[in-house]
Amino acid sequence: MKRAIEFRLNGQAVHVEARGGQTLLELLRQELGLNGVKEGCGAGECGACTVIVDGQALTSCIFPALEVEGASVTTIEGLAAPDGTLHPVQEAFVRNGAVQCGFCTPGQILSAKALLDLNPHPSEEQIRTALEGNLCRCTGYQQIIEAVKAAAEDQP
Amino acid sequence: MKDMAYHKPASLAEALELKQSLGEGAIFLAGGTDVMVQARQRKIAPQALISLRGIAELRGARLEGDTLLLGAGTTLSQILADPLIALHLPVLTDAARVMGSTQMRNVATVGGNVMSAAPSGDTLCPLLCLEAVCHLASAEGLRLVPMQEMFLGPRRTAAQPGEVLTHLAIPLPAAGGHASAGAFLKLSRRAALDLALINLAAQLWLNADGGRIEKARVAAGVVGPTPLRLPEAEEALTGAPPTAATLERATQSLGGTCSIRDSHRCAAWYREEMLRVLLMRAGALALQRLGVSLEVEA
Amino acid sequence: MSALKYVGQRLPKADALDKVTGRAVYINDLSRPGMLHGKILYAAHAHALIKGIDVSKARALPGVRAVLTGADIPEIPLGFMRDNRPLKKGKVRTRRDEVAAVAATSPDIAQEAIELIEVEYEPLPALFSPEEALAADAPLIHEMDAKGRPAKSNKLSLPWKLICGDVEEGRARARHVAQGTFSTTWISHCCLGTSGVIAEFDLNRNLTMYSITQIPYLAQNDYLEALKAMGLPSSQVRVLCQTIGGGFGSKLDTHCYEFIAILLARATGKPVKMQFSREEEFLAQATRQPATMEISQGCDAEGRLTFREVHMLLDNGGYTSWGATTPSVMMVPVSSLYRVPNVRYLAESVYTNNIYAQAMRGYGNPQATFAIESNMDQLALMAGMDPVEFRLINANQPGDETPQGFKITTCGLGQCIEKVRQGLGWREHQRAKELGANVRGHKARGQGLASLIHVGGGARVYRSDGHGMIMKLDDFGRLTVFTGAVEIGQGNETILRQVAAEAVGLKLEDVGIVSHDTAICPWDVGTHASRAAFISGNAAIQCAAELRRKIFTLAAEQLEVEPEDLDLSQGLLLVRRSSGGEGQRLAVAEADESLPLAKVLRKAHFSAGGRMLVAETFYDPPNQMLDREFKGNLSCAYAFGAGGVEVEVDTQTGQVRILRYLAAHDVGRALNPMLLEGQIYGGSLMGVGMALTEEVKLHEGRVVNGNFLDYKMLTAKDAVPITPIIVETDDPAGPYGAKGVGEPGCVPSAPAIANAIFDAVGVRIRDLPITPEKVLRALQQKKDEVCRLVPAAC
Predict the structure, then answer these.
(1) A59 touching C, CB under 8 A?
(2) Residue-number span of the structural domain to which A102 is assigned
């Protein structure tokens, strides 16, 4: 059963048809071509599919697509400026070696962004809490945490 | 996932009507962190989902006299951010803080946690200790079920198919000037993104001069098919002085109520031992919050 | 020689921009026109005869384009012992066995079709441990051995036996001997990107594999073999690697699902994609090799090791991948970690009906080092020596040749141990411990240390350890480097850019890397054995020398000078007009004249009989394949390191918290300290997971915790504060002195933690992972033992 919905995606209005049994992840990847949203587990247990919905980071692999009606959704594709200028969190990830294989990276960045939007100067513990749902096998998290700290320090 | 109908009613009345007309094939969905996973793994195959996320009246906490009325649709993140809950029900805040992950807490609701009725559900022991009452609404009206009667088995509750959990009515522990505090502890293999191997909540009330524990509520999870109140521990604590020796005695009383089993997640003997350790530590933490400092570290 | 411009700099990764913006294309993101989706039906039993398969309902499902079973496909033997097949025929031997496969127009239809396939099994008695499988009356899991002869037992005929010196003599000479049995279990790579592939034939029956392999050229050979078996002997294969969502050794073998994709693509004439779910990844993707290890070591009165003897029993699972060959690398620490004159090592692999194992970071080294370094502490205790002093006495030294024949060139082991000792505050801690100040209530602190040796200059595990490279200059002085190496996230392309820019004398931004395509890039054995930076770096230096020779010859003609009077730096040709050339490196200030390289290149291109500059090279390091006795200089440089931890043990819960983790590594030279630290952080935490929380749990051969909730990979909240300590020894064989460092991080973690737990509470945990249950049980046993011996103390 398909239903037409409207929502804001990376700042732009979107009209799209979504199915009742569809997850937001499927809608974003399959219908809207946003492949930066990754599926790592399909069960909300790894965070690779993290997106921001109305300011809140959530795992899109277990979030019903139709729930975003009227909401504002941010994916990794919506962070950098059209000219390629990176968002400060992206920039900090690049500069601090927070990226290895990169599969978890979009999710990590969005979790970090959601944190910094709410709390521009978090403690290390708050950073770890914000990232606790984003598994990473490559980095041991240290350079990711450093990157988020660096991004926070660069904020006014 | 199989295709299914999706409804997002704006009011409770509308939700109940939908459920009545759609029948058994329709299931309610709060945060969806449980339902969506089960549907994706095809453990359930609903024909329709009725999302409760659009119903404003199910969200948030408010005081009604000496009762805190907690909307079942309140997310765990909202619980963590709520000053009323932090002030009156720190035992619930303790539990919300260690559930799942940030992304999960942003979506998962306290009502969903109750209705999923997992033996490990972290908010359940605090709600048992707080003697919360479940408000179950249906086309027939409202039914009140004490938390202690809510859990019938793993993933089975006393709610009827047509009923929606709308609120949890939580009597304020400190009502009437009582000194009361609670604490919740969870043992898991990881610091986050994990299920409890065992969890335990304790809520303690002191008498007027602080010399005795007047009332005690203790509940533990993953010690049986449902989260359980531990009456033998409560009895051992009640009337006794707030000391380490009292807590120690309470740990020795444990055993009868629980039916702890081996699972691939944890051995039974370890859960049994940890039940005593958690009781000791949660009891000490609760007393510490009451200003009684014991030589027991968490 | 002028100062280095790029080597040693903390430069960001070349691929980071694509990855932080979500633009990088993983196999999960790729689709091809007309592509079908494949799914696999796995076995319902751990050991059973397949009596019949009914695929009629699956075939009839709309959208299904092909259904294949073992009966439909030619014989394609897979795996190190050629004992595996893409789809099993007649019999299943594990719960992960592929029984049938479907290609359909969507993943959902393919899945539905899989569920419509009916298989009739006749269950056989199953064997879930090597001990069971070795019993005299045990049923045979494989009826035939690797050579097609009837098998006599479930033991694999593998030759893992190393004898150096005279162990009996060493044992007789030992004043103290410590013995112990240790075990490690199945560990999953947990690559965040799940496995997948697209197989596509063109109309000439040539095959393109959109792949995530770490061994494109060896995989190409395997695919060619399969095509031959499929009756396509003249087909070509091109392997195109996509962005890889984690490697860690999981992609060093070719796997059944890849061949199933090829078979389905051939059957349908369409591109076919296989994409694993996470559950499938846990079920079907082979793990780290589990091991049971008996070890004894002895030392003389001065604490010098006199012998080491290790016997291992390996659960091989139902089939053979690289797991069965990990003893070849387990031998490295067994023979050569510390100076030990007499060594005996024996490893036996046994078929069981469990899942099987493959390569994983360290390739057996973390397992073996867990036994060796735990036992080193046991021996130090018996000898009454400080564990750190004991290790320093026995530390390898530059110039040593180890009993296995490893020629140690540079060796920073002693320095690493010293730095970890200082960083931990070892002496202060030991004094505090004597006073009982390390215990507060039910929390006890302890410190532990473990060392490592690993191959750091390639490893000749295949006839060639080589790497081909091409460098091409364009009209604007921009360089393209064609490499056979694979970027798995470790940063090889970034390192290669740095080394190439440095070695040729160009600006970093003028160097581009082309890789991941077997049709374009020259051969490389694979991204394994911590070799990519070392081997491709050396190849770049060698290729750069050739390119510079060509540039200078060309420029010398144009400028009418001698080639010796030219240098290239930052894309500028430097010319010395004054006589008396003093070699090939000129400081800019020394040059009499400079001009852009691009100008010379364009002039050469656009003159009559135009020329363009390309250089190529093949670098094969001067290391040796082990001989029949497993001796020889396997690597041309060896990496060393030491890990030190401070733990806090909760004696009521058995929980272990790591307070500090110091990771000292002799890396030769840090080519890019930021990326190097990334390898250390990531490797160390992977080691901590192996030590404390990670295990694939099997119940009668079935994975019972195949998801990220129940398989406990550590989270950011658990992440341990790790302090990397980089020791530079400037290895003569390494590119700018560097040695490999991809694997070593995870090697010493488990024994360092086990040793720290012993230091804290006096119990030794011998079986990984070190769960709270094991710690608590050991504490209780210790208490019971004390009570038995000294009843008054209880």
Answers:
(1) no
(2) 88-153
